[in-house]
Amino acid sequence: MALVLDISTSMEFWRQVYPLDRAPAQPSAIAPEPCACAYEDIERLKPDWMTAEFLAPLGGVVRVLAFEGAQRRDSDRHVTYMWGGRLPEQSFYELKDDVFVASPEFAFLAASTLLTKTQLIAFGCELCGYYSFDRNEKRGFRTRKAPLLTLERLRDYLAHAEGCRGYKKALSALPHVVEHSASPMETFDVMALCLPYRLGGYGLDAPLMNHKISLTPRAARIAKRQSCFPDMCYLPIQLDIEHHGRLDHSDPEDQASDRARVNALKEMSFEVIELTSNQVNDLLSFEYIVQRIARLLGKRLNTGCLGATPARLAFRSEVFAWNQSSGKLR
After folding, report:
1. How far is CA 320 from the centre of its chain?
2. Is the whole model's pTM more than 0.90, yes or no?
């Protein structure tokens, strides 16, 4: 008998428990059966890290997964979610004997049955980014040194998921997922810039996110480092877009580091556009900056799709709600 953690519990594992400096290996476990559905079996199998504190964001109950044919036996201490149909082989990791966690790839597929398309794209950016939501952090997330997933692995997984629940929606969201975002607000920025008009964006080309740029000797002296990682960079035209969040950049030392990086890039003839949270939160202020970015990119925005369109208001509402819930999947 195996204990299979459901999608939301698995994501809490990847966000809270799994090391921030390590990318998961390629998953290989197939869907295990039979699955533990009775609380006494779950209690016997559950790992040590599944404490009351860990379960608090999940409503204090253990959430497990079972497959077609299993007998669902919920209690006040656990809930069983049923998954029907087949799954690709790369859907689970075996953490220890008889304990399985959903892979980030499977989490993306399964989340397509729980989230709007816009939120699913934001979730994909988190999985492929340098941050993980964490409700216990003041800023709402932790910084990762290694993403949980790459776009290449996600594409490969979905290529084997045709016919699975959520497949069509996951596949339609995939082209809009961007790698290497370092925060929820960077994810918002890049989605707002690049999603098509019908999804509430402005249809611009995707920038490189947190791409390493080697500095010239003079720029390195200004920045006091040999390289830097701009938030969003259009390298061919040397355009850098920096998002200065309320919490991440309130410390004087952080502000000095930000200013040194901006000055170093300007020394290398980069155009630097700086965004604040207040500007991003105000649609008119943000759109003024988007129009400037579009001009620098040589792109013409569709004037009929500017302003507070229904799609844009829905996009903002859904992504802000997703961020405020710390990426809650259920």
Report:
1. 13
2. yes
